[in-house]
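Incident log, structure service

09:12 report received: a user says their structure output differs between two submissions of the same chain.
09:20 pulled the input from the user's history:
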Amino acid sequence: MRQVAVVGFAEAPNVRHTDGTTNGVEMLVPIFREVFDQTGLTKDDIGFWCSGSSDYLAGRAFSFVSAVDAIGAFPPVMESHVEMDAAFALYEAWVKVLTGEADIALAYGFGKSSAGDLRRVLALQLDPYVMAPLWPDSVSIAALQARLGLDKNLWTERGMAAVAARSRAAAVHTARAQLAGKVSVDNLLTEPYIADPLRAHDCAPITDGAAVVVIAAAERAAELSPRPAWITGFEHRIDSGSFGARDLTTSPSAAAAGAASGATACVDVAELHAPFTHQEIILRAALGLPESVRISPSGGALAGNPMFAAGLARIGHAARQISSGAADRALGHATSGPALQQNLVCVMEAR
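09:34 re-ran on a clean worker, output below:
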């Protein structure tokens, strides 16, 4: 089997609101240029492109086609799309490289969450027969999950606030984070609830942004990066979409994806896509991550959560830990769907 490595990563600034249209072109063109400058590649070198975005977030059909303008509509390219986080687009791109259909592939994701009422829009991803007609918003669903864990004594509100405080402190070192700075756990706990038991700091901020990751087969990877992040495991799993059919305080799909990708072996750092503080606690338990593992040194989704790009960014930041020499083995995680329904794990290491 071919060996594949992450050789480039860039992300747009994570901001509360961006001007312009919802097709992503304005956010994508600058980071395409950035990643090409990193690697010395041009658009003509990319053998396969795959994007992650959402028509129901953009508010129009086939919105991802407009984003192809950032690539260039001519000459024709081999391109695909997933209606979910672009981390899953990266998985498709990885398969293309593994099978020899491309030597270099690029995955990108974008989302303008500020364009509508995100809490309501995300209700459209629920079961259309039973759940969606009730219009339960995404934060309220997460609040139900958090309450179940509190009632079972699996975590505490102080422990949740500690996750938020650590995330914001870590994000100080991430240039394009949306929320960063040192905050006191005690001060966070004085804030009002927005959906009991969740406070504002327990929830990822509404974020506009984009991310791009370039991967290459072994023959090219060493040429494109002085220290590639070699992908040694890449898996994704899914839990039931019915809330009554699973224990929301655990994540069997994350555990299964972690085991299949080799994440149970020791990693130095783990970038977890946890849009809510209690979900980081669930993921740490599901993936069996010990206290010695550095969690989301970028600040994670709590420091900036562009829809359909945040999971890809977690893989990119994990790869950056390896390429910078800060880690020898890293884990990138992405989730999609309500209450950690779908989970993807990518394990990378240096040679």
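09:41 both user submissions now match this output. Likely a transient worker issue. Closing.
09:42 reviewer note: The chain is about 35% helix and 20% strand. The radius of gyration is 19 Å.
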